Amino acid sequence: MIGCAYGMNLGYPINPARDLGPRLLAYFIYGSEVFTYHNYYFWIPIIAPLIGGVFGAWLYHIFVGAHLPDDDDEILSDTSEEEQSDNENRRKAGGHKKDEPSSPRDSGASSSRSSKRRVAT
Predict the structure, then answer these.
(1) What pLDDT, on the 0 to 100 scale, is given for residue 80?
(2) Alpha-carbon distance 67 to 86, whole Å?
């Protein structure tokens, strides 16, 4: 009942979980006027967070995500040239032995990877 009495004054519509419940209760008591009040304002707290989330993800992708390096480029740059040539020679010679992992990633060990990171300029 507090939500019905002070909902618009206290900012209940910001959280749809706190606004929709009292509106449904008020609908059973007062009728459909609770949904038409303030030019059908009730749907804005339900729809606006969904639209805002999609818009925020799009902005993040444009301003931040587009400038991050790809994971494939980082993996290739961390592998030394010697390891790359060894792997290429093994592939040409017919593969690896069954006990020997094909790369440090296959063995589950990350200690052989270099800890150097590329610096964006």
Answers:
(1) 61
(2) 32
